[in-house]
Design goal:
By secondary structure, this protein is an alpha/beta fold. The protein is 21% helix and 22% strand. The chain has a single domain (14-196), classed as 3-Layer(aba) Sandwich (Glutaconate Coenzyme A-transferase). The protein has helices spanning 11-14, 31-39, 79-86, 100-105, 136-141, 188-196, and strands spanning 20-23, 47-51, 69-73, 90-92, 111-118, 126-128, 143-150, 162-164, 170-173. The radius of gyration is 18 Å and the shape is globular.
């Protein structure tokens, strides 16, 4: 029996101008979902996008989206985020990684929605957060609306990484590779160090 998926996001029913929205980060940024929001953003402004280290295309931090989004990052990474923080178009919230979940659960950073990248549901309806088992589960558990990008390239990981499809308010299906960080080229100094190790 096939698992029924939630409907596509009707963004104007899920969030409003000024909403605080978590975006899954590190290797599992839901890029297609963020793009879907951008394409359906007419009438929105000042949406705060809260995230950890976001690798890859952080288009929401670009100058062209400064009226639509303001990033609030826990880790400054990538040129677009760094430039946005430097220019005052994004905020940096310094916090210990172990304390981020409590910012969500105690309401200090109350979340209106969480945008996450998940695996397709299994036969019991459970989706995995895959590589995003950092603060994403806390965001999912402490937000008003969970919006997911169901991505067959997200691996199913063990442990406390599963959410049931019934917990997802809306979703899109989009297959995208997870972001990878390429190793730097090995130069003569690295080669010499390697000889000693």
């Amino acid at each position: 029996m096939a698992i029924a998926l939630p409907p596509e996001p009707n963004w104007h029913k899920l969030i409003k101008s000024g909403s605080r929205v978590f975006v899954g980060g590190t290797a599992s940024v839901p890029y297609a979902l963020v793009q879907h929001l951008i394409e359906n953003s007419e009438g929105f402004s000042d949406i705060e996008l809260v995230h950890m280290l976001a690798l890859g295309d952080t288009r929401w931090a670009k100058e062209e989206y400064k009226r639509l989004f303001k990033a609030n990052t826990f880790f400054i990474g990538g040129e677009a985020i760094r430039r946005a923080v430097d220019e005052g178009r994004a905020d940096y919230t310094p916090v210990f990684l172990s304390e981020i979940s409590s910012l969500f659960s105690d309401g200090t950073l109350a979340l209106d929605a969480a945008l996450v990248n998940v695996s397709p549901p299994d036969e019991f309806g459970y989706c995995s957060l895959g590589a995003a088992v950092d603060i994403s589960m806390s965001a999912v558990r402490n937000c008003q609306q969970v919006v997911a990008q169901i991505n067959p390239q997200v691996p199913r990981t063990a442990g406390h990484s599963y959410i049931h499809i019934s917990e997802i308010t809306a979703c899109i299906e989009a297959s995208e590779p997870l972001v990878e960080v390429s190793p730097p080229p090995i130069d003569s100094v690295a080669e010499r160090i390697g000889q000693y190790v």
